[in-house]
Structure formats: C-alpha cells, structure tokens
Amino acid sequence: MTFDLIEAPGFYDNKALWTRCKWIGPGRGWIDPVKEAQASKIRMEIGLSTLEDECAIQGLDWEEVLEQRAREQTKMQELGLPLPCLDPSTNNNSSEADNENSGSRYFCESLFWASQPKQAAKT
Asked: pLDDT tens digit string along 40-73?
C-alpha cells in the first residue's frame, strides 16, 4: 500500500513551514451586538486584542476586511461621500475626553490611509 498521494518535498525536515496556517471557523454570532462591538473596541484600544483576533471571532479574515474597507472608502471618495469615523470630534455623542483617549481615531485613520493609492517612489 502506498501513501504517496501528495508530493510534499522536505515535509518532515520543514514540518513547521508546511503546517503553518491559521484556520478561521464560522463566526459565533452576537447576543447583544452593541455591547459586543463596544467590548471589541475596548479590547483593541487597551491592547488585549487585535483586529485579527476580533475578525476571527466573527469568522472573518482581517486582511480581507481591511481590503474591502479600503475599496469602500476609495469609492466613497470618488462619489464625494463623507468618510465614516475619520474625525471622532464630529461625533456629537462623545465628549472631548473620549476623543482625546480613544484609539479608534488611529484605527479609522489607518483605514483611510490604507485606502489611498500607493505613490511611486521618486528617483
């Protein structure tokens, strides 16, 4: 009986390289979406979690989420629509202290810059 079903040269010598992957299962769903979104935001702001972790909990790939957000923001700019969450100070429901201490501004701005076209290096 032969087990040569898949060619994987160097598998046993480099097992860690061949088996390095991250499986993202189905999302667990939300009981209270507002509270869970707030908890997710807080976990990321205080450094207990990452976007990768929070997306995986919902069955999403963080890179695909960022790429989609970038496409949406680019399209919004093309259509002259306001970009969401770039300036938390425009949110009338939050206080100045919340705006000063919030990590969400950095996150939203990073999404904005990720959506910008890449500039060619000047020579």
From this structure: 999 999 999 999 999 999 999 999 999 999 999 9
Cα separation, 57 vs 51, whole angstroms: 10
Entry pTM: 0.55
CA distance 63 to 69: 10
Number of independent structural domains in the chain:
1
- What values do phi and psi take at 90, rounded to 5? -85, -10
> What are the b/e assignments for 45-61, b being 16+ CB within 10 Å?
eeeebebeebbbbeebe
Q: Domain for residue 110, yes or no?
A: yes
Residue 86 domain flag: yes
- Asked, for residue 22, whether it belongs to a domain, the answer is no
DSSP type of residue 122? P
C-alpha angle 117-49-17 in degrees, rounded to nearest 5: 75
